[in-house]
Design brief:
CATH topology of the largest domain: Helix Hairpins
Distance between the termini: 117 Å
CATH architecture of the largest domain: Orthogonal Bundle
Radius of gyration: 56 Å
Number of helices: 6
Structural class: mainly alpha
Amino acid sequence: MSFFKRVFKIGQAEAHAAISKFEDPIKLTEQGIRDLKSDLQKAMSSLAEVKGIAIRTRKEVDGQKKLAADYERKAMTLLQKMQGGSMDAADAERLAAEALSKKEQFAKEALRLNTEAERHEKMAATLQGNVNKIKSSITTYENDLITLRARARTAASTKKINQQLSKVDTSGTIAMLEKMKAKVEEDESLAQAYGELASPEQTVDDEINAALEGGQQPAVSDQLAELKKKMGIS
C-alpha cells in the first residue's frame, strides 16, 4: 500500500470515529420516528386507494348482478306473453333468447368483477396489517424515546457530579483539615497558658483561709503537728 493510500485510510477511519462520537441516539431515534410516520402516511394513502377500488368494484358486482336478474325477468315476461297469446311465439322466443344472452354476459362480468374485488380486498387487508405494524412501532419507539431522554438527563447529571468529584483533591483536603486541627489545638493551649498567667498568685493567707473553709489543707510543719497533738486533735 502506498503512502498516500495509508494516509487516506487513516483519515477515513478518523472520520468514521468522529461521526460515531457525535451521533446522538436521541436525535437518531427522533429521525427514525419521523421516517416511520412518513411511511405510515404513504401506507395509509395506499390503503385508502385500494379500499376505494375494492368498494367501487364490489358495487359494480352488485350492479352487474342486478342487470343479469333484470334480463332474466324480461325473458320470463316475453315467454309469459307468448304463452298468453299476446305475442308471436317466434318473436317472443327470439327476444327471450337475446335477453338470456344479455343476462349471461352480465352474470359473467359479475363473476369477473367479484374476483377482482376479492383481490383488492385481500390487498387492503395486507396493507391494513402493515399500517397496524407501523403504528405499533411508532408507539413503541415514542415510549422508548421518553425513557431514553430520561436516561440521558440522568446520565448527564451523574457525569457532571462525577466530574466535579474527580477534581476534588482528597489527600489535600485531609492535610488541610489536619493543619487546621493542629492550629486549633495550639490556640487552645496558648489560651489556657495565658489564663494561668493572668490568675493572681495564691498567698499563704489564702491557703490558710481556704483550709479553714473546708478546702484542701496545705502541708503542715512539725510545730503545727505538735500543736494539734496538745489540743487532742488527731
